[in-house]
Amino acid sequence: MRFSRRLASTTAAVALVLPLSYEAAAHAPAQVPAAEEPFGAECRIRVTGSEVTAFCHNPYPRTDRVRLHVECARWWDLDADGSAVRAAPAQTVRLTGRCWKEVESAWISHRPDR
Fold first, then answer.
1. What does the pLDDT look like over 75-84, one tens digit per residue?
2. C-alpha–C-alpha distance, residues 74 and 49, integer Å
3. Are the beta carbons of 112 and 77 closer than 8 angstroms?
């Protein structure tokens, strides 16, 4: 008996909430997101031993400034943040970095060129 009362009260609560949320959504002003121009070079990173090579191709009309970041596995090995390189539209750039010993991780950061 308790189960059927709980089920009945839950069903009634859901039945009351659904029409209200639909009404609120139906009268809300439509917000269209601003059309942003696609951005960001597509990059492939390869780690071979202690060396890192990245190729970034920019298929978009806006120039991307890409930067290679290398984190080394050993505590005494210096991590490296490379210089930003301009990847113009339809251009492929090559970035390199290295550690003295093993590479822990490597990634690329992107920034629009002004």
1. 999 999 999 9
2. 13
3. no
What are the φ/ψ torsions at residue 19 (nearest 5 degrees)? -65, -35
Residue from 34, 55, 36, 59 nearest 46 by CA = 55
CA distance 110 to 114: 13
The answer to whether the pTM exceeds 0.90 is no
21: left (phi over 0), alpha (psi -120 to 50) or beta: alpha
- The single-letter code of the amino acid at 81 is D
Q: Any idea what the Cα angle at residue 88 is, between residues 82 and 94, rounded to 5°? A: 40
